Amino acid sequence: MGLFNVTHPAFFLLTGIPGLESSQIWLAGPLCVMYAVALGGNAVILQAVRVEPSLHEPMYYFLSLLSFSDVAMSMATLPTVLRTFCLNARNIDFHACLIQMFLIHSFSMMESGILLAMSFDRYVAICDPLRYATVLTNEVIAGMGLVVIARSFVILFPLPFLFKRLPTCRSNVLSHSYCLHPDIIKLACADITINSIYGLFVLISTFGMDLLCIFLSYVLILRSVMAIASCEERLKALNTCVSHILAVLAFYVPMIGVSTVHRFGKNAPRYIHVLLSNVYLFVPPVLNPLIYSVKTKEIRRAIVRMFHRIKM
């Protein structure tokens, strides 16, 4: 008990799936498969965009940024998830936990910003195609990428320091196999009003505004598409957006579920919190490369050519 006489515990204890602790080793296999698909699939897309000249276009540059954020997200959670499920090594150093929390939320915000940039790309391509090449130049794409990356780190930089000022004396057991801000903040035994307000501000000003802008861009896209006389041309235009729409749904639906349960589902069973958080972190990195590989023929062709060259 002497550990909790100080302001912060030396370490936190991570949790796998509540109630399934004895059989967690059997979940290690599926988790390893998910990480392999996420890391391997996104690495293949990054390499395909890099080596294939036909993919040196704005849409695919943004896709490579999305793949990078998915790889980074997977790498941020992989060490603690596999240690918890494979080795039953549950402890994580206090400061390492804060770093992991910062990285997970930063890369999540980065993915949100990239999805917004991709919606702008689709808006220009469909609503103003004649100016597409002049609006989305390499300099503009690089600038948008830098803004997205800088925003995710600058806005979330205060988060670990806001938590460090609070004493942590209730417990040192977390609800997941990784560190999330809503989970850590529940362990503080002081007024967390500032932390909650800042967390809500970050959620609304970034994720909320990104989702609103994505929605508005698709309202404008639909209006432009409906003005096309040919039904075939309408379907062709909308088909270029399908992959992006699926990626947006794969990211935002679990995120909204997690935020809703954490803020309003205090009495919900613990496994609901754990399940939604795992879906939120694991599903987008796994689905995104599959979505774009299946739905985008240019990506499929580039991947086939790339593996053919490797085989030769």
TrEMBL record:
Keywords: Cell membrane, G-protein coupled receptor, Membrane, Olfaction, Receptor, Sensory transduction, Transducer, Transmembrane, Transmembrane helix. Putative odorant or sperm cell receptor. It comes from the Eukaryota. It comes from Vicugna pacos. One of its GO terms (biological process) is G protein-coupled receptor signaling pathway. Its main location: membrane. The chain crosses the membrane at residues 25-48, 60-82, 94-120, 140-163, 209-229, 241-259, 271-291. The lineage of its organism: Eukaryota, Metazoa, Chordata, Craniata, Vertebrata. GO terms for molecular function: olfactory receptor activity. One of its GO terms (cellular component) is plasma membrane. It is found in: Cell membrane; Membrane. This is Olfactory receptor. PROSITE patterns: G_PROTEIN_RECEP_F1_1, G_PROTEIN_RECEP_F1_2. Belongs to the G-protein coupled receptor 1 family. It is a multi-pass membrane protein. The gene is LOC102538844. InterPro entries: GPCR_Rhodpsn, GPCR_Rhodpsn_7TM, Olfact_rcpt, OR51/52/56-like. Residues 41-292 form the G-protein coupled receptors family 1 profile domain.
